[in-house]
Design goal:
Distance between the termini: 79 Å
CATH architecture of the largest domain: 3-Layer(aba) Sandwich
CATH class of the largest domain: Alpha Beta
Structural class: alpha/beta
Strand content: 15-25%
Order of helices and strands: EEHEEEHEHEHHEHHEE
Largest sheet: 8 strands, mixed
Helix content: 25-40%
Number of domains: 2
CATH topology of the largest domain: Rossmann fold
Number of strands: 10
């Protein structure tokens, strides 16, 4: 297993190797899902005041490391692969600062490993004695999931510390706000609000709109309720 590590301070400058106890390990593959997972991990590390470690696991071909990024497969020397991952961590930190402000941790560390992703994540977490692993997960289904398996699921099964799985937020159909009914909108405009619903929707409302008026015959007193329901 090939390992390459670099340190990056939260403000982008070089820094000394920190203590690793109580740190957070983040697995990244340059995808949008892993980006959001990294931001969640940075939030946790910032709350704990601990060190975040960002790991990318790639394949190896001879002396070169094979990294897939944005649909492109790159063949890089270990030094260039380490620099590429370090630049990615810098961008993640910049994105975090733009959303949440300066993190509470001083530095972040980036790592490059080759081999099976789940095994690499679990082994590095054990070596660093991290307190939490954060991984993103895709939404593979059917045959694709059966063939490729899930790195996140394997990490959860074999890790010796808690694992947080960051899933992409998906808006459910029932959460989507439907546009107003054109007929209802026309009725409201034509009646200047005196009628709210069109004929089709009038009987579908669980509770019809009710107007409330001040009782003109009541004796007005301070703090007296002004609205009364009509029967």
């Amino acid at each position: 297993m090939q390992k390459d590590t670099s340190n990056t301070s939260s403000d982008g400058s070089a820094a000394e190797r920190p203590k690793v106890a109580g740190s957070v390990l983040i697995a990244t593959d340059f995808s949008e899902n892993s980006q959001e997972a990294a931001l969640h991990a940075f939030q946790t590390a910032s709350l704990w005041g601990s060190v975040p470690h960002v790991l990318h696991v790639c394949d190896r071909s001879g002396e070169l490391l094979l990294i897939e990024r944005e649909g492109e497969r790159l063949s890089l020397t270990p030094e260039k692969a380490r620099a590429l991952v370090a630049e990615h961590v810098d961008r993640l930190l910049a994105l975090y600062r733009s959303r949440y402000g300066a993190p509470a941790f001083d530095i972040a560390m980036s790592h490059v490993l080759t081999g099976n992703p789940a095994e690499a994540i679990v082994n590095l977490a054990r070596d660093l004695r991290v307190s939490l692993i954060v991984v993103g997960t895709s939404r593979k289904k059917g045959v694709e999931r059966m063939l490729l398996g899930s790195t996140a699921e394997r990490v959860v099964r074999h890790a010796q510390c808690p694992v947080m799985v960051s899933r992409p937020r998906v808006i459910q159909p029932e959460e989507t706000i439907e546009p107003p009914c054109p007929a209802c909108a026309e009725v409201r405009q034509r009646t200047e609000g005196a009628q709210i619903w069109c004929d089709d929707h009038m009987d579908q409302q669980e509770r019809r709109h009710t107007y409330h008026y001040r009782d003109k015959n009541s004796r007005v007193r301070e703090n007296f309720p002004l609205l009364f329901p009509l029967n």
